[in-house]
Amino acid sequence: MRERITFFHPTDTGVLPENLNRDNGGLEGPVLETTREDRLTLGLDQLPAEVASVLNGFSHLHVAWNSPVAYRTLEPFAARLSPGLHVLFDPTAAGTSDKSDLCSLIQIFSHRDCSVDEANHSRKAIPTTITGPEGSLQPKQFFQPLEELSHFAKWLSSEVCGAEDDACQSRAQRLLSAAGLDITYDAASKTAKVSAFWPLKRQSVSVPFSPHRRTEVGILTLGNPPNLAPDHVGVSGILTTLGEKKQPSPALFAFPARHRLSSSHFSAAFLSPTGLHPTLQLSLIGNQPPKEDAECKPYAYLTLPKTIFADRFQLDGELFMASKNLTALRATSLPVDLEAPAYTTGAWGSSILLELAPPASATTQAWTVEVPLHLRYLKPSETGLESIEVPYPAVFWACSAEQGPEFSQNPFDRAHVGYDTLFESDTVFWHVEPRPEQGDRLVNTISVPVLNEHGSALIGVGTSLVVALGFGWVLWKLYSAVAQNGYQATPKAAEEKKNR
Amino acid sequence: MIPSALFRPLPLFSIAAVLRLTLLVYGIWQDANSALKYTDIDYLVFTDASRLLAKGQSPYDRDTYRYTPLLAWLLLPTAAGPSSSVLFSFGKVVFALADLLAGWLLLRMLQARRGMTPERSGAFAALWLWNPMVATISTRGSSEGLLGVLTAGLLWAVERRRVSLAGVILGLGVHFKIYPFIYAPAIIWWMDAERAGGSVNQMRRPSIKDRLLYFITLSRIELAIVSLATFMLLNILMYSIYGHPFLLHTFLHHVTRIDHRHNFSAYNTLLYLNSADPSAPSSWHAESLAFIPQLLLACLLIPLAIAKKDLATSMLAQTFAFVTFNKVCTSQYFLWYMVFLPLYLPNSSLLRNPKLGISALLLWVGTQGAWLQQGYQLEFLGNSTFFPGLWLSSLAFFATNCWILGIIISDGASDKSAASTQ
């Protein structure tokens, strides 16, 4: 079991080694504006048996969660995902097509049992697969909205930590303020990596010592080592290992980065009125590519819960797409039923990758993109309206890298986040920061009209009655017509026939 | 008023053709210049399916393709170029030509009636040929126009005693869109020995056995065999090529669909309610019995009562009943019965009694308008109008349709209308 804790702070602040207190084996430092990442590397045998058996069903697994509360970040922690819980996985050859594994995994994060929909007794949580460039194998994906990690923290503290391990208990508690979580498992190495991320804010640079594991701490900022290669990020600062007598050592190094921060930002909102076919409008500040010497195109990657979907056949046609400032629909997850109501839809929802069409002007300007979407029918409710939440998309410029960088060298790399596998492996993603127009949530709410439950009783009786009356009326007309004139051809008509 | 000379065949069809050509060209222009498309979504489904076909794939690889592969075959030329090419409109031209052919058949049937001047029959044919709704639907690329020519062709073939042809059209029609099977009992019933030209039974008091034997005529057997053979041959052919997806999407889908989305049907709100909570013990499942009044009227009672007196009016009333009592109903379905209107109206009480006719028209348009207004509130403004607005207006539209159906039935059974067809 190894642990790595990394603080990244802006270049204009910092902490001097002499201000770090290293009594008791731990590290005590000042309060500083900084980000923090905790990464724990575990062998399969160090995990609770039930989790290990679930992980055994996957050859590769990535669970990624991002907070719905807007947050600030620094490179190299630039990757953005739609807020919520994403699961991307490759089942083992033996075939974990059974979704019970997926669901027992998700139950660590949420009390909802995803394998059974209580009201309908129908199975849900069907994962989807997004179609990538021809021939490329894409992981299966699943998504579920998740507000915070409290369920996961509770599970950690009761199932993993052990009552007397205070360091572990406080670690679990700290997850409540995290902005991101990544759990990756690779069957080849039989190891799981758990990373939690806290956004840029004032927090104390302190890490308690634990004899149970080796803990490395880095306090870093962006730096400029000599001969910085293109698409690389340079880093400087100090590194230390807790419990060792050695003084913190200065560090200066560089690595290629898959995810970068662009200088632009965007907000997302639904155009009013939303009706049954809402339009999601993305308002972007900045139409210039982040890199001049590379081929860059802007994209939006939407993660849509099952209540709302994009019609992949509608997102076609040059004129139509251009009128929305879209270039093309580049990928869509399957299956997506284009008609079914939410309550009979098995798939978790869908994701789409849209290439955007920025205005061509040379000066920087604001622009908007419109994404036409469709609501599914939802169950009747008390009020006739139901609220649904739609997470912000991930918006980024995808740029070709200059000389096939080895992103895996990046100690902070975040791969298999849903959209990266849809591009060439050397693509660099320059992320556009999501900024809510109002409030601090990266989620839009729509009020969906549904049938008002108060009518239920009347609708059953009333429909039957009216249909019966209508049917009765027509029967009466038929009866009186036949009673009056019979059903045989009239003599005149018959006569005519004979004379033919 | 319109000068009656315009109802002579040449101007009649020229105007109908120019109307469709204008809409077609306008549609191409709008599609090329506006983000809002003139072309119907369904047309994109058909042409996508044709494109798949051209690539050697199954048309059912296109989601929501719920038709016979014949349609995708028919539209194969559209797959030759991009959607901006002239050939892409090939299908719309076919649908528009089908409209015109249906109009020609209507005109022939009207002309065959006693006491109809050419202008008068032309004027009634114009109800279909110059109907902007019909012309728009086919030039937007909806295939319902094909049903118009199939059902008009069926009636024409029967009236002309071309039994085999009628059987082929009937089998093809049912393969195409299922619902034309309702015409089979009407035609069989109508085709008695007197009409079919067989020997007329002169017995005073025939026994049941005699009656039965008398019922089974050569032409009835011919129609049954030819139509069934056509239907089954097409199905076997399609099944052998496209397998289970063909059965699933062309037929089974229409049996199992839930139809929860709002449409004109009186059952609609109930279907939505019960589909969302199928286990609710208190809920009424009247919709599961919906096929009983629908099929009783459309396949049995209406043909029995009026097919022998007036086959065209019987087919109109049957279609009207089928659409009115159906679990799903959209405005394209109205085309199914509109094709018979020119044959029914000349002797109808709706024309004889203008007050009645205008009331029926206003009620039909008015209740539909009320529904559309509620639908707009729901679909575009997001107001929850399912209950009571949409529900009540769909019931009002249903009641109106039942009332009109009663009028059509009375007219069809009365001796006045007594089809002076040959």
Automatic annotation (TrEMBL), chain A:
It is a single-pass membrane protein; Single-pass type III membrane protein. Keywords: Endoplasmic reticulum, Glycoprotein, GPI-anchor biosynthesis, Membrane, Transmembrane, Transmembrane helix. GO terms for cellular component: endoplasmic reticulum membrane; glycosylphosphatidylinositol-mannosyltransferase I complex. Belongs to the PIGX family. The chain crosses the membrane at residues 457-476. It is found in: Endoplasmic reticulum membrane. This is Protein PBN1. The keyword Glycoprotein applies. One of its GO terms (biological process) is GPI anchor biosynthetic process. Required for proper folding and/or the stability of a subset of proteins in the endoplasmic reticulum. Component of glycosylphosphatidylinositol-mannosyltransferase 1 which transfers the first of the 4 mannoses in the GPI-anchor precursors during GPI-anchor biosynthesis. Probably acts by stabilizing the mannosyltransferase GPI14. One of its GO terms (molecular function) is mannosyltransferase activity. Pathway: Glycolipid biosynthesis; glycosylphosphatidylinositol-anchor biosynthesis.
UniProtKB/TrEMBL annotation, chain B:
The chain crosses the membrane at residues 12-29, 86-110, 163-191, 212-242, 288-307, 319-345, 390-409. GO terms for molecular function: alpha-1,4-mannosyltransferase activity; GPI mannosyltransferase activity. This is GPI mannosyltransferase 1. Coiled coil: none annotated. Its EC number is 2.4.1.-. Pathway: Glycolipid biosynthesis; glycosylphosphatidylinositol-anchor biosynthesis. Pfam families: Mannosyl_trans (PF05007). It is a multi-pass membrane protein. Keywords: Endoplasmic reticulum, Glycosyltransferase, GPI-anchor biosynthesis, Membrane, Transferase, Transmembrane, Transmembrane helix. InterPro entries: PIG-M. GO terms for cellular component: endoplasmic reticulum membrane; glycosylphosphatidylinositol-mannosyltransferase I complex. It is found in: Endoplasmic reticulum membrane. The keyword Repeat does not apply. It comes from Clonostachys solani. The keyword Repressor does not apply. Belongs to the PIGM family. Mannosyltransferase involved in glycosylphosphatidylinositol-anchor biosynthesis. Transfers the first alpha-1,4-mannose to GlcN-acyl-PI during GPI precursor assembly. Required for cell wall integrity. It is an enzyme of class 2 (transferase). GO terms for biological process: GPI anchor biosynthetic process. Signal peptide: none annotated.
